[in-house]
Each structure stands twice: as C-alpha cells, then as structure tokens.
Batch of 2 targets.
Target 1
Amino acid sequence: MNFFSDNFKKLRIEAGKSQLELAKEFNCSQRRISHLECGTIVPDINALIEIAKYFEITIDELVMYKY
C-alpha cells in the first residue's frame, strides 16, 4: 500500500487546490500530479522534501498511515 499517494491527494484537496494548480506550484505537469496521487510513480527524496515543506508537514506525516 502506498500511503504517500493517499496522503498527497488528501492534502491537495484540503488545500482547495486542483491538480493543475498544484502542478503549477511544483513546476510540473498535471499528469505527474495525477500519477503521484494514483501511486503509479513515487517521488524521490528531493520531491518529498519539497512537498512536505509546501504543506508544512514532516516527511513522516507525508508517507505514513494516518489513523
């Protein structure tokens, strides 16, 4: 199970951002955001750091299961 993809999608929705808006924030394609949310790709450590900073959470919070 890829907890990152679930958490990433939840964070995006809670932030009120569309996939396209988030893609612009991270300077990537909407398709990449979609693949991250579906779990078909996994971000490298640099991307995890950037995403965690953007959402003001730790990397642990980003990749771990939340009860």
Target 2
Amino acid sequence: MAFADTLMIGHHSTDELSAASFINNMFNLAIIFSTGFSYGLTPIVGALFGKHDSFAIGRVLKNSLLANFLLGILLTGIMWLLYLNIGRLNQPSELIPLMKPYFLVLLLSLVFVLLFNALRQFADGITDTRTSMWILIGGNLLNIIGNYVLIYGKLGFPEMGILGAGLSTLFSRILVFIVFMVLFFKAKRYRPYVEGFRKSGFNKPDFMRLNSLGWPIALQMGMETASFSLSAIMIGWLGTIALASHQVMLSISQIGFMMYYGMGSAVAIRASYFKGQEDYPNIRRSAYAGFHIIMVMSVLVSIPLFLLRNSLGGLFTDSEAVSATVAGLIIPFIFYQFGDGLQITFANALRGISDVKTMMAMAFVAYFIVSLPLGYFFGFVMNLGTVGVWMAFPFGLTTAGVLFYLRFRHKTQNSKQ
C-alpha cells in the first residue's frame, strides 16, 4: 500500500511525496514493530499444528487478537504524542500542513493493521499462506483504485492529493480485516479452529506467552526499522529533494524486503512445525534452504534495479533532482542485499524455534551502535549527504545477519539431534 501511495502521490506533487516520505517512515516503525509482535503467534500455532491440537490453536488466536488490539491502542497513543510534536522535528516548514491530515488518517487505521496481523499469523502457522495473499492483493487493488479516485479527483470526488491516499489506505485496511474475520467463521478449512475460538475464554497463560515471544521480536524488528525511520529524520535536515528521494528508494527497496520476508516467514513456519516434533536436522535444513532461495531472489531483484537505476525515479516523480539522487542510492542498496537476506533468514529461523530474547541485544548493537552512527558520520561528517546515510545500511544489516546466524547455529547444534 505504501508503494502504491508513493507512486501515485509523487505524480501529484513533489512536496506531497516528501510529506508522505516522512509520515510513512514514522508509521513504518509502528507497523513493523506491531508486525513483529504478531509474529509471536506463529511459533505457538506452528508447534500446535505439528501436534494436531486445533482447539488450542483457536484458543491462542482469540488471545492473540486481544493482545494485538491492546498493543494497537498503546501504539495509537504513542503516535498521537508524536503528532502533537511533529513541528519540533526540524522538517521543512512547507510540508507540515500536508503531513498533519495524512498522519491523522493513517493513525485511525493502525489498530486494524494489528488485528489483521493476528489473523495472518494464525493462517501462516497452519500453513495456509494463500488466504492472506489473496486478501492482501485484493486490498492493494482496492487501495490503488481509491488512490486514483481520491488523489486526482475522479468520478465526481474532489481532488484530495495526499489526504485522498490516506483515506484510501484507511478504507482498505478496515476492509481486509473484516473480510478475513468473515472467512475465519465461514470457511470450511477453519472450522476445526472456530470451536476452540468460540468455546475458550481469554486466559493468562496464553496471553503471557504471546507477550513473552511477541515483544522481543517486535523490538528486534522495530530497531531495524528505526534505523531507516530515524535516518529519514536526518535526511529531512537535507531538504525536500533528499526526503523525497529517500521515500522513493525506500518504496523500491521494500519490494525486495517483502519478498525476502515472505520466504523468511516460510522458514519460521517450517522451523516451528519441526520444533513441535523436536526435529532439529530439518529445522537446520529449512533455514539453509530458505537462505539459498533468498540469495537467488536478491540477485533477481538487484540486476534489473541496477540496469534501470537512471530511470527508476521517473516512475514516481517528474523531478529530475529526485531521479538523480535515487540513481545514486541504488549502489548502497545493492550492497546491503546479502546482509538483509542473512538477517531475515536467521531472525525468522530463531523465531520459529522460539529463541527470540537474545535477538533484541543483537539488533541494538547492529542498528543503534553500528548503523545509525555510521549514517551520521558518512552523511554529515564526510558530507556525502543522502548517499552517505544509505552507506551505513550494509554495515548494520550484515552485522545483524552474522550475529543471528551464529546464534542459530549455536542453538541448533547444541540441541537435541
């Protein structure tokens, strides 16, 4: 949805593209953090699925929806405080009137993102990944249509620009959650789990276990996203063109990231299934196979982006300055593909075996001790600007990947063979 918003907003105005860049970066932090929290459900459901305990799966899903709803309320409050202080972040003054209404509309959608995440992780845990895929594809198509109508003022609607993109995203996120809930109660494939959902109540053991797994994953993923989102604040100091270029490049990079994370989720699903059976050799095989596939994906993503680097910016905006900056950012982007694939694979492998707490400290080192300081150093001390800030990402992501791999190897080699 963010990719479609960026693509369509950029052709409405460069200022709106810059405003969307900053706000989407702030919300990406909240959304990726909350997505990480919901990932705590996958190893629980996967292990129960390996034991064929469908009643318990329905019970845990019910508790997960409660946990995600409460986190959604908490994050909405935190983001509201950020909204009240948005003028103090030293962003270009001409962008503030564009940022504020867009921010408020996305804020309304946050709880629905978390509730959908809980349902998606439940479906992933029982190896039903197609349902989430089709619902999300439908939601994205709806968002694109809504963007066209509301951003540009078609079919009798007023021309709303960036606000129209926000309203379209809000409506799409509400609808995909409602559709998934209806499918859960009506679809035959989910019938074994509905009984556990309906007949069980909220209980402290499930709730606490979801939190004990969810918070470390959320913090690990949140720190990774924070290295990009906080970099957006630094890039905002460089002006509107730099911020717009950063948003375009993030939108391009998210295509690869989401592809890799889809395969990483498959690693987590298989690892959790084999963990339920105490089958450590197959846990290792799943992780290494996933890493090999992600590396092939990274090559397939990097080659066309490199070859098309001088024209990619033009897909999002008519600004030649933005397009030129985007072309320069492709090089550090390609350099960090190995580290990104490595950290995604083994973060998900560790998630699948429910070994998540150590990742928090590793992520802190990689993203806050390595990535962010290097971004400031390259960007402002070395005067390399936006490209310099992006040069730090390969160092941070590769550090995280190596640390996660070493932890996974230690845990699986010293566990039951």
